[in-house]
Design goal:
Layout: H1 9-25, H2 34-41, H3 45-58, H4 72-187, H5 196-223
Length: 224
């Protein structure tokens, strides 16, 4: 059976606060005196003793503060670890720097290759364009020359055509004349002074004139 009396929460909290204050004021080196706690809390000795025992049970263990310089062995170990970490950091940094530099060089080489390819393609297309322009200019010049020649030929062709038509008309007239003469010779052989050989010569002359006109047209076309 628990013979401890029930202490009100308000009183317990007040005693805990006073005990903590006195403990901190001593630099956590001395436990609060029972009489001092009782006096500050304004309670009886029994209650103060009971609650102070509870406070000691829940009081966290306090470690004694270290003093003095860092031990040499610890300093040496720390310096070695720091040096090792620094060397490792430098190694990692140098590796990353080397990798970044190689990546940059590869990218630079790739860009330079692409630049050269584009430059060569541009030059090639420029040369092709110039050649095409020259061909078009030459063809245009030929077309212009042919057009000029054709314009020069048209009047002469028209003239030759007119002469050919005239020669054809003469041939037709002569053929009709020959037919008439032949008819007259058959019907009136004694009255005609125009013999068939003479009529034939006239017809042959007209045909020769027509052939000559056609030949001149053909030669003119070939010369042009």
């Amino acid at each position: 059976m628990d013979n401890r009396m029930q202490v009100p929460t308000e009183i317990r909290d007040r005693i805990f606060s006073i005990a903590n204050l006195l403990y901190e004021q001593s630099g956590r080196s001395e436990m609060p005196a029972l009489d001092k706690v009782r006096e500050l809390a304004g309670i009886d000795m029994v209650t103060a003793s009971q609650v102070l025992k509870e406070w000691r049970k829940v009081l966290p263990a306090s470690a004694t503060q270290l003093s003095g310089n860092t031990p040499e062995e610890l300093s040496k170990t720390y310096n070695e670890m720091l040096s090792s970490v620094w060397e490792c950091a430098k190694k990692i940094a140098n590796q990353n720097l080397y990798a970044a530099q190689k990546s940059w060089e590869q990218e630079r080489d790739e860009l330079e290759r692409l630049r050269l390819e584009l430059s060569m393609a541009y030059d090639r297309q420029t040369q092709e364009l110039i050649a095409t322009q020259k061909q078009l200019s030459h063809q245009l010049s030929i077309n212009t020359t042919n057009e000029n020649k054709l314009n020069q030929m048209l009047p002469k062709l028209h003239e030759f055509g007119t002469k050919a038509v005239s020669a054809q008309e003469k041939v037709t007239v002569l053929e009709e004349t020959v037919q008439q003469l032949e008819h007259r010779l058959r019907t009136e052989p004694q009255e005609s002074a125009f013999t068939p050989p003479q009529a034939a010569d006239l017809a042959n002359g007209a045909e020769a004139e027509q052939a000559d006109a056609a030949d001149r047209v053909s030669k003119f076309v070939k010369m042009s």
